[in-house]
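tl;dr need the bound structure. longer version: we got a ligand (magnesium ion) that a collaborator sent over and nobodys looked at where it sits. i said id run it. heres the input, straight from their email, havent touched it
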Amino acid sequence: MGSADDVVLEAVDIRKAFGTHEVLCGASLSVQRQEVISIIGSSGSGKSTFLRCLNMLEIPQGGQLRIGAETYDFSRLRRPPRDAQLARLRRNVGMVFQHFNLFPHKTAMENIVEGPIQVLGESPKQARETGMELLVKVGLQDKADQYPQQLSGGQKQRVAIARALAMRPELILFDEVTSALDPELVGEVLTVLKDLAAEGTTMILVTHEIAFAADISDRVGFMVDGTFAELGTPQDVIYNPKSERLVRFLERFT
Ligand code: ADP
Ligand code: MG
């Protein structure tokens, strides 16, 4: 573990309810630079909501979030963060979704350069150069001019990853990015994630690919009812689970 300066994001006691349904009940996680963290847990345990709180697609009702120089104390927040604040936050915390969310009427390249041009103010030429490097990185250098509907699910997801990388975020969140794919397409996306991890990309992944999570992660968190029931190294959490609940959860995936 590095110094405090190496903390990219710190979430403390995050709380979020929808109506009377408390989905996050005090979830805490601190992410070091270059760390890879996987979050596992049953459907409905709050994994997606937690990720969405980290880039404030959902605004928590309690707890604190520190990202770089910015600290948000949600129990004291009197009004929602301004759009400019949210834009700054989301530039630093990228997200890739289960269902890709590509712009259907833009080519792969146009999807990738949109953010760098519109938000980062890069020149179209610069953005396209970087975009091509990113397409090479995800193995799609020959797909720049294809539209999403012309691509397979695995290819779409790799474009979505390239699009997130193009913003050069401090941290990227991946929410079950292989869950919607046909089984034969899962491997090509996992390979890209593994390469990113090896390059030192700071990332949090929600995944049901337990063996993969154990392989690439520095730490694994097991979420139960909106809080981390276990959080530690893969050796601890996946190979030496403490709770009966985690033992039973892992049995379903092996
Ligand atoms: P997971 O990703 O672990 O499957 P989610 O975070 O998606 O879990 O959901 C946790 C719980 O929160 C579920 O019961 C879900 O129905 C509920 N939930 C999530 N988003 C909303 C929302 N926007 N409005 C109401 N309930 C929601
Ligand atoms: Mg989810």
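gonna send this back to them w/ a short note. The longest strand covers residues 7-18.
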